[in-house]
Design goal:
CATH superfamily of the largest domain: TPP-binding domain
CATH architecture of the largest domain: 3-Layer(aba) Sandwich
Shape: globular
Structural class: alpha/beta
CATH class of the largest domain: Alpha Beta
Distance between the termini: 6 Å
Number of strands: 6
Strand order of the largest sheet: 3-2-1-4-5-6
Strand content: 5-15%
Number of helices: 15
Number of domains: 2
Radius of gyration: 21 Å
């Protein structure tokens, strides 16, 4: 069981352990799926068929818009790898609605495809297991779930996760999907409907949205069965404003009241840190313990990184709060969860 008021901030590195594409792999995927070659015909001789059918299906009666859409996809193909992320590329052309629209289509396609190929999905012939329990042991979430369940009696199963917050900056639903079936596996009398209600009641926040509710859109749904434009209604990119006031309040309240903050695979991008800023007028009255992965980083940037973290809840700090920020460089999310777990469990 985790200490009350522990906040987990989940970044792309945490989803990478499930096999989700991040960084260059995601940009490469989007770059390739944005390349279409038309040899003097209506249909492309080269290009992703699902993306083509999606765009054509929307604009088949608007020839000018259809042509503009494929010009925009060509722009994405040529330029996306010059940005740090697809969100940053969309932000670069924030005045071009087609870039944003088609960028979201590419995000939805890439993440949905990756969910279906992730470590969570069982191999053919074992689909009845719902989760690939063997492969998922190599990720951080198995250790996380064990700690989440420890100390919770079967009679109190609906209290699971009540005192923690998960702020997930990723579009995938790996956490919710895994927990739904892990709860059923851990507690023999819990059916799928009850497990889903337990997960739904947990304070899991996706600031930029996700592919959609698992009850309406199943994890790993085959691409051929997906309406990509419908999915994009659930997605928000950096260039767009997060307008859900209640969601913003939930995030800021969680940071404000946190006793522990755990960053997993998080890159500390400025726009994401701004969303987490608790906006406290004075120093936080209690010290917050912060534990973070720093995979791919070096301690050369530790001073600045600690200042960014502490400023979330302590704008007038004189430095004493910095001592409570621990960053583990070169440690994967899995290793971090196993080796640092005792710091934030009861």
């Amino acid at each position: 069981m985790f200490e009350p008021n522990t906040v987990f901030v989940i970044g792309a590195g945490a989803s990478a352990e499930f096999g989700l594409p991040v960084g260059w792999k995601l940009l490469e995927n989007i770059r390739d799926n944005s390349h279409f070659f038309f040899d003097h015909g209506k249909f492309p001789t080269k290009g992703n068929r699902k993306i083509y059918n999606t765009v054509y299906g929307k604009y088949e009666r608007e020839q000018e818009m259809l042509e503009r859409a494929f010009i925009a996809l060509g722009d994405i193909n040529r330029g996306v790898e010059t940005a740090g992320s697809i969100d940053e590329y969309i932000n670069r052309y924030s005045d071009d609605s087609l870039i944003a629209e088609l960028g979201k289509i590419q995000i939805a396609h890439a993440i949905l495809e990756a969910e279906g190929k992730s470590k969570l999905v069982p191999p053919k012939g074992k689909e009845g297991d719902y989760i690939n329990w063997g492969d998922v042991q190599d990720t951080w979430i198995s250790t996380f779930a064990r700690a989440l369940f420890d100390g919770v009696r079967a009679s109190d199963v609906e209290s699971i996760g009540r005192d923690i917050t998960i702020i997930c900056f990723n579009y995938d639903r790996c956490i919710e999907h895994y927990l739904e079936f892990a709860i059923q596996r851990a507690y023999r009398d819990v059916d799928r409907k009850t497990a889903r209600k337990i997960v739904d009641r947990m304070n899991i926040i996706h600031p930029y949205g996700s592919l959609g509710s698992l009850s309406r859109f199943a994890y790993g749904t085959p691409l051929e069965h997906a309406d990509l434009y419908h999915i994009t209604n659930n997605l928000i990119t950096w260039s767009e404003t997060v307008e859900d006031a209640s969601l913003i309040t939930r995030m800021k309240t969680a940071i404000k009241e946190s006793r522990n903050i755990v960053f997993l695979g998080f890159a500390f991008a400025n726009q994401n840190m701004k969303l987490l800023d608790a906006e406290l007028p004075d120093n936080k009255p209690v010290f917050t313990n912060v534990y973070s992965t720093g995979y791919g980083l070096t301690d050369d940037i530790e001073g600045k990184l600690k200042r960014k973290i502490v400023s979330l809840y302590c704008h007038n700090s004189l430095g004493e709060h910095h001592r409570y920020v621990k960053i583990k460089y070169g440690m994967t999310c899995r290793d971090f969860m196993e080796k640092q777990l005792l710091n934030f469990v009861v």
